[in-house]
Amino acid sequence: MKQVIWISSVALCAAGVMTAQLKPKDPTQSPASQPAPKTATDQTYPAEQIQAGEVRFSSDCGFCHGRDGAGGETGPDLTRSALVAGDTRGDKIGPVIRAGRKEKGMPSFNLSNADLEAIVAFIHNQKIKFESVAGGRRAVDPGDLATGNAEAGRAYFNGAGGCSGCHSPTGDLASIATRYHGLELLQRMLYPRGRKPAPAPPKVTVTLRSGKTLVAPLAGESEFTIVVLDPSGKQHTYQKTDVQYKVDDPMSAHFAQLAKYTDADMHNVFAYVDTFK
Ligand code: HEC
Ligand code: HEC
Fold first, then answer.
1. How confident is the model over 172-195, as pLDDT tens digits?
2. Is the predicted pLDDT of residue 166 greater than 90, yes or no?
3. How confident is the model at residue 12 (pLDDT cuts 50, 70, 90)?
4. Do residue 122 and residue 178 come from a single domain?
């Protein structure tokens, strides 16, 4: 029988800060530092395979590499990995997953071919997604960044973009354009990761059959289970059929937004945010 642990918000905070401090990110992994290496061989994958890969990735890999593959507490950003860029249909990624690099903290996985292929499809798809909006191909040119319309950006910020639900130009984002400039500001706006201390992991509220509720950091999620961390860092797994749960991940808004931005919206919002001086 698993003991139910009630976690106060103070403990939650401490747990979040602790992981961030125990496992500092490699500064060379800073997303804004370099454009991602380009994929050597273009490859496309069916949407269902990518989706299956997303589920698998989220449960097996997400805790370390981030559920979106763009880097987590211990695992590197796979969308910027040279190995991933050089991979064709799993020929380089596959062996790393199967053998692991245990001395470096990458475990080995015994996956079926179908699961492995789906994960590979998901990783390549994430790479394309990140490249096309946040990465090297466009938006690197400072001149290109200056093409937006701040007024239109303000409308998007307060309207369709939903940014004002979490941010305010005179509150948390005040003077952000003084702290960050150009591409670096764009990177923060699109994908604010790598800040220290890193934002706390998503929280999940789990309600057990008994009616008891606990709030804890989410460690992972699969189709059937939800994994939470207790304050000592131990993982507890719950079957989704046994509990009710709700994940609260403010950062997921940014990730979802990457897929929604049109080129014009993005430049307009950037022009607006660039006025927060
Ligand atoms: C416990 C944390 C952890 C888990 C879980 C994990 N990884 Fe990793 N992974 C790492 C670390 C750390 C490295 C970097 C190893 C190194 O420095 O060589 C890594 C490296 C990699 C690399 C090589 C990247 C490169 O540029 O060399 C790939 C690909 C990869 N992981 C994919 C996966 C996939 C897919 C899964 C899930 C099936 C997964 N990892 C699960 C921690 C993890
Ligand atoms: C559901 C809440 C939510 C929404 C909606 C949202 N964000 Fe964020 N945003 C966050 C969180 C959480 C962070 C990370 C804050 C941190 O690092 O402490 C963040 C960070 C940022 C940062 C970097 C702040 C810094 O100090 O480095 C910028 C810029 C930003 N968001 C802009 C936007 C824009 C533009 C939109 C709309 C397109 C948007 N956000 C929508 C939650 C949200």
1. 999 999 998 887 788 788 777 654
2. no
3. very low
4. no
Report helix, strand and coil shares of the chain as percent, to nearest 5: 45, 10, 45
Residue nearest atom 1 in ligand 2 by C-alpha distance: 250
Instruction: State the total domains in the chain.
Output: 2
CATH of the domain at 77: 1.10.760.10
Cα–Cα distances in angstroms (integers) from residue 220 to residues 20, 121, 181, in the given order: 17, 20, 34
| Same domain membership, residue 90 and residue 42 | yes
CA 48: distance to chain centroid? 21
The answer to the question of residue 1 being in a domain is: no
Same-domain status, 158 and 264: yes
* Å from CA of 188 to ligand 1 middle: 24
- Domain range for 100 is 36-134
Q: Tell me the pLDDT tens digit for each residue of 129-141.
A: 777 655 443 434 5
What whole-number distance in Å separates Cα of residue 169 and Cα of residue 64?
Answer: 33
Do residues 69 and 48 share a domain? yes
Residue 93 CA, ligand 1 centroid: distance in Å: 9
The 3-state DSSP class for residue 7 equals coil
**Ligand 2 centroid, distance to 101 Cα (angstroms):** 34
Split at pLDDT 50, 70, 90, the class of 105 is confident
Q: Is the pLDDT of residue 29 over 80?
A: no
Please state the pTM of the whole predicted model: 0.51
* Mean pLDDT across 166-173: 92
Q: Cα(61)–Cα(71) distance, rounded to whole angstroms?
A: 10
Domain termination residue (choose one: 134, 159, 182): 134
Which of 98, 116, 134 lies at the terminal end of a domain, its last residue? Answer: 134
